[in-house]
Amino acid sequence: MISMRSLCRHYEMGDQVVKALDAIDLTFQQSEYVAIMGPSGSGKSTLMNIIGCLDTPSSGSYELNGSQVADMDDNQLARIRNREIGFVFQTFNLLPRLNCLRNVELPLIYAGVDADERIERARGALERVGLGDRLTHKPGELSGGQIQRVAIARALINNPSLILADEPTGNLDTVTGNEIMSIFGELSSAGNTILLITHEEDIASHTRRIIRLRDGRIEHDTAQQEQPS
Predict the structure, then answer these.
(1) Strand runs (DSSP E) across 29-161, as ranges?
(2) Residue 25 pLDDT
(3) How far apart are CA 129 and CA 219, in angstroms?
(4) Is 89 buried (19+), middle (13-18) or exposed (0-12) by CB count in 10 A?
(5) Ranges for the ABC transporter domain (predicted)?
(6) In the chain, what are the domain boundaries?
(7) Phi then psi for 12, rounded to 5 degrees?
C-alpha cells in the first residue's frame, strides 16, 4: 500500500541543512496498525505530513497505492487527501458552529456528493463511532472524547484506504483516551489501515507495530503481539 525508498526531507536554515528525514525505507501493507514514535525533532511529524501528501520529500520515492506521489500535481494531491486519506488531529479541527452531522459531511461536499447521500453516509459514520444520538449537537455541547469521535467519523466518511492520527489522545484523559483507542482497534480489525503518531507508550501498545525515529532515521521497527480485546 505504501512504499518509501531512500526518502529524505531536508530544510535549509541559513547556512545549515536540517535533515528532518534521512534515507527512510518503509513499507506499510493494507490493514496494518502502526504507531510512529520518537522525541521532539525526530522527524515523526514530517513523516506523517509526507505520508498524508501535505508535504513532499526532497529526494527518494514515495509510492501510495501503486502511484508515485512525486508525479502528482496539486489537484491530484488534493484529491488523494480528500478521498484516500482520513485525518484525525489532536486539536479535533471541527467547526464550532456546525453540528456533528454537518461537520462529518464536509469532505463529501468537497467531493461533490449530493445532499441526501451526504446525510445518509454522515449518519452512518457517526453511528459507527457510537454517536448516532448526537447528530444535531454542536462541538461545544460534547465531551472531549465525543468530539474526537466526531473527528474520527469525519475521517471515515470517504471510506479512505488510510487513516492518519496525530496524537489523537493528546487532549484526553486516560479513560477517554483508552475509549478512543478501542475505536481504532475496532477499525483496524475491520480492515482499516491506521498510522498514528504518539509519544505515549501505553497508547502505542494498542498497535501491532511500533516505529521509533531518532534524528530523522529509523531507530527501531518492531512488530508486537496483538492486544487482547
Answers:
(1) 33-37, 59-64, 67-68, 85-89
(2) 96
(3) 34
(4) middle
(5) 2-228
(6) 2-223
(7) -90, 125
Q: Contact, 157 vs 122, CB < 8 A?
A: yes
| CB-based burial, 206-218: b 16+ in 10 Å, e otherwise | bbbbbbbbeebeb
What is the rounded distance in angstroms from the CA atom of residue 77 to the CA atom of residue 102? 24
**Among the CATH numbers 3.20.20.450, 3.40.50.2000, 3.40.50.620, 3.40.50.300, which is that of 2-223?**
3.40.50.300
Contacts of 58 (CB under 8 A, 6+ apart): 8, 9, 10
CA nearest neighbour of 195 among 77, 31, 65, 82 = 31
CA distance 147 to 175: 15
Per-residue pLDDT of the chain (229 residues; tens, 9 = 90+): 899 999 999 988 888 888 999 999 999 999 999 999 999 889 999 999 999 999 889 999 999 988 888 888 888 888 888 888 999 988 888 999 999 999 999 989 888 899 999 999 999 999 999 999 999 999 999 999 999 999 999 999 988 989 999 999 988 899 999 999 999 999 998 889 999 999 889 999 999 999 999 999 999 999 987 654 4
In three-state secondary structure terms, 66 is coil
Q: Quick one: DSSP state of residue 225?
A: P
* Whole-structure pTM value: 0.88
